[in-house]
Each structure stands twice: as structure tokens, then as C-alpha cells.
Amino acid sequence: MGTIFEKQDQEISQSANETYTYSVAVRFRNAGKPYSFGTENPSIKKGDWVVVETAQGLELGEVEADALEIEKYNLHMPQKPVIRIATEHDHNEYANNIEMEKLAFRICNSEVAELELNMNLLSAQYTLDRSKILFIYLADQRVDFRELLKRLGARLHCRIELRQIGERDKAKMVGGIGMCGMECCCRRFKSRFDVISINMAKNQQLALNIDKLSGMCGKLMCCLKYEDDDYKELTDGLPKMGSQVEYENEIFRITAMNVMNNEVKLENRETTLFITMEELREKAIPRKGVIMPKKPEGTEEKKVIHKTTQNLHPESKTHHVSMELPSMAEQEPKKNNQRKDRDNNRKKPEVTTRRFSAKKNENRQKNNDTPKPEVKNVTVRTFGKKKKEDAS
Predict the structure, then answer these.
(1) What is 94-165's CATH number?
(2) How confident is the model at residue 291 (pLDDT cuts 50, 70, 90)?
(3) Which one of 152, 171, 255, 383 is CB 3.0 to 4.6 Å from 217, fit for a cystine?
């Protein structure tokens, strides 16, 4: 029943330990995995429907396998009992519960909309005896649903439980097809979620594209965890990607590392080497703070040396083909020169007028700055002297 039974194993261990002779695997509706229950009836076969006691109450489930003897298969574990094999009345009640769950779902959705609660209702499920109903919802934050519980209790007249889940639990509950073409692992067989980090993708040399590394739930895919331990073991003791190492008295940088092909790519300005991971671990010396020398002018092309395969010839060189077209290269400078001449001819009159106007302004300033002729000053002075003499 999706996330309804996620805490069942913990609650079973807290219950009274009872010993049973046989154990049966029972799968519930919308459940991702079967659960084991104890019984004394060895006639229970695969495909039978049984009524069992769960942490939520009485439930109806389908048997996945024949009853197994606990002593023979060493299945000692705390188990809850199988109440009985389902009768016709149980099947009728089960069918009625499915119809009543749809009505309860619509009622809860209308109350959520009226109260304007920020929650996305996913499912509603009754127990077999309809003494309790469980609403599962998705929300980014905690929701205050006290008023909602009061309204639902007055309309449904039974015990009500609201359970908040996350995006990964929703994907497990709804299901889907992953990019591998198979059903989601959480829906198919996973019973608990592992902690997935982006470092697992870095260890496997995967492109850090979140869209491609995310699953149906929008989180990092669970399958990144499967091969993480193997990659850590194979790359243990090796220098990190992008670090500098000394190999055969030369400084190289680690530019690529293929763990599956047991191949490492070392590169500097003159040479590119492909060596095995064992050679890198034994012969390479990590160097810190070493500056790779610059490529001198007039050097030859970079040599590529493969030490991991025998079919490749280390002395082979790649020839670079020039993609320049000489005819076009000759015509382009002529066109550029013609355009420059046209632009210069258009700009010449503007330059000359500016210079001419600038000369006019300089001449005007010079004329204004020149002193008045001395003759006028002399006549004024002589006229003043005569007036003083007459006054005396």
C-alpha cells in the first residue's frame, strides 16, 4: 500500500514476539514489495487472498508464494499473524472500500481547497473494516491541518490519518519507467532509500548534467549507488583527475580516465600517452605546484603514444589539413582596401572643414588678444597733461 507499510517492520519488532510454524509473503494493493506474515495453516498457496493484521489494522492482500516452513528456511523474525483466508464477504467489503475511497478523496480535496492549504492530495485508503482512513499528500513544508481533521471527522465518521511524503515516496507510490527502459527501482524492489550524492557521479566520470542524472522523482537516480563502491575500489590510490604527475622524467596532466577499459590519458604540450591504471599507480609520481613548460616556437606536432593496445603504431603521426582557401584569402584584402579608400574619401571633407573652422577661431582669438595701437594711448595721455597744465 505504498508508504502505508514503510514503518511496519519497526512496529512489528515492538509488538509481542509470537512463534509460527509457517511464513507467507503477502502483497497489498499499490505496494512496492511483499511482507511476511506468520501462520499455522500450511495449505495457503500462491494466489490466495488472506486477511492479515498490519500496523494500520485489518487488510486484505494476495499471497505471493506458498507457505514456507520457518525452521527449514531459518526465517526466524517477529511476524504478525494471518487472521484467515479471505471469504466472499471480505472481497465484497474490499470492492466497496475502493468506491468509498473515491468519494472520501473528493471530500478531502474540496475541504483542502476551501481552507486554502498548500498540499497536494495523492490517495485515500480505508482499512478493511472501514474503522480508519489514511490520506497521503505531498507538500513542500509542514501543513497545519487541525481544522481539516475536524471537518473530515464530522463528514466521514471514522479515524483519520494524514501522512506527508516526499518526491521520492511519490515516485515509489505512483511508479514509472526509467531511462533504462525498466520500472523504477523504488517501485520494483527497493524497500528503503539510499543517500545519493553528486560525488558518486564524479567517481564514475559521468557528465554532471542534472537533467540526465535525475530520475522520475526529480532527485539523483538510485542506480548511481550500485557501482559507486566498485569505482572507489578501482581508483583507490590513484591521483585525481586534472592533477599533474611525473612519468618517465616528464610532467604530464591526467586528462581522462576510463576505469572500465583500464586506460588513463596523460597529456602535455608535446606528447599524449595512453597507459594502464597499474602503470599510473606504480610509475607515476604526483607533483604539486609544478608549472608545465611552454611549447617553444617551431616545434613539431604532438605525438600520440598508446601503451595500452598493441595494434596501434606509436610512430604514426596525424596530418592536419589546411581549410583555408587561397583564392578567397587574396580577394578579401583587396575588398577591404577598396572599402577603406571609400571611407577615407567620404571623411576628408569633414576633416578639412573642421580644420578650417578651427583656424578661423584661432585667428579671432588672436585679434581679440592683440593690444590697441600705442598712438591712441599717447594722445590720451597728452590730452590729460594739457588739462593739468591749464588748471595750474
Answers:
(1) 3.30.300
(2) low
(3) 171
